[in-house]
Write a sequence for this structure.
């Protein structure tokens, strides 16, 4: 479904980002995978070799830094002689604690990576598409079900992910005239290193609340990304797609 397209995936070195890279490669895309974790992204790069012979390349980036994002875009253009027309923002972090105990740095860090990072990448990719007069693109931002309903211990994370929803809808309105679509996915609880940090008893309670009675797999999110990246979703923009097994619908 994505044959010949160049797709940029951030947070590519782990969990959901990793599964997205693999799904995109299976669908014939060239995958530019970027992460702050150099080792992680190189391991994912290796894993793609058994999936497809496409031109997949690893990059290091800190999405919260505009200079780093600018360097990433230059590096991608140098290596591919092309601009990505698909981009997924999967880079994200948690710094959980109760609001009354939350240090200012924990707030800033989460907002900078999850929300500012989303802005920086959407801007950079949209700018590149417009400047090169390409026919359009698809950007997918990873929000969270927590951005919709909130969560104890996650005021910083919940605010950042609610921000991603507002950002996505606003950006979608602005760049629709360039045929760039911007959508958000709201995962529920997905089995990745991020959720491994959640205490076991809380995960058990959460699982009981999920109508489909099980946690999600990274591939469940990756398949939704394939759809939103492809022309099968050509008339969908500014949407929020919940991939949560029905949790908090
Ligand atoms: P993960 O922790 O497995 O992977 C996140 C990746 O982002 C890591 O490889 C990390 O190195 C990278 N990263 C962190 N800071 C970065 C930065 N400044 N620049 C570039 N890369 C950076 O997490 P997971 O579970 O794969 O999450 C992916 C996305 O999905 C995140 O945005 C997360 O908030 C969101 N999400 C995850 C859920 C889950 O249940 N796992 C639920 C809802 C949303």
């Amino acid at each position: 479904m994505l044959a010949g397209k160049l797709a940029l995936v951030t947070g590519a070195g782990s969990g959901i980002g990793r599964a997205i890279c693999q799904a995109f490669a299976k669908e014939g895309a060239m995958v530019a995978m970027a992460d702050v974790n150099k080792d992680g992204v190189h391991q994912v790069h290796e894993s793609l070799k058994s999936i497809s012979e496409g031109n997949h390349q690893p990059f290091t980036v800190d999405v919260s830094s505009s200079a780093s994002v600018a360097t990433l875009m230059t590096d991608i253009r140098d290596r591919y002689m092309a601009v990505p027309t698909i981009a997924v923002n999967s880079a994200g972090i948690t710094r959980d604690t109760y609001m009354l105990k939350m240090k200012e740095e924990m707030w800033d860090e989460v907002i900078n990576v999850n929300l500012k990072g989303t802005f920086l990448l959407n801007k950079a990719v949209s700018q590149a598409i417009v400047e090169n007069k390409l026919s359009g693109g698809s950007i997918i931002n990873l929000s969270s079900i927590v951005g919709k309903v909130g969560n104890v211990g996650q005021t910083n994370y919940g605010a950042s992910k609610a921000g991603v929803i507002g950002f996505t809808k606003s950006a979608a309105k602005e760049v629709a005239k360039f045929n760039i679509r911007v959508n958000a996915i709201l995962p529920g609880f997905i089995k990745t290193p991020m959720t491994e940090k959640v205490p076991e008893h809380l995960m058990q309670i959460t699982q009981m609340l999920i109508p489909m009675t099980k946690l999600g797999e990274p591939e469940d999110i990756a398949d939704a990304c394939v759809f939103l990246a492809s022309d099968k979703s050509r008339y969908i923009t500014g949407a929020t797609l919940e991939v949560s097994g029905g949790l908090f619908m």
Notes: Residues 10-11, 13-17, 35-37, 40, 61-64, 90-93, 113, 142, 144, 187, 189-190, 192-195 surround NAI (CB under 6 Å).
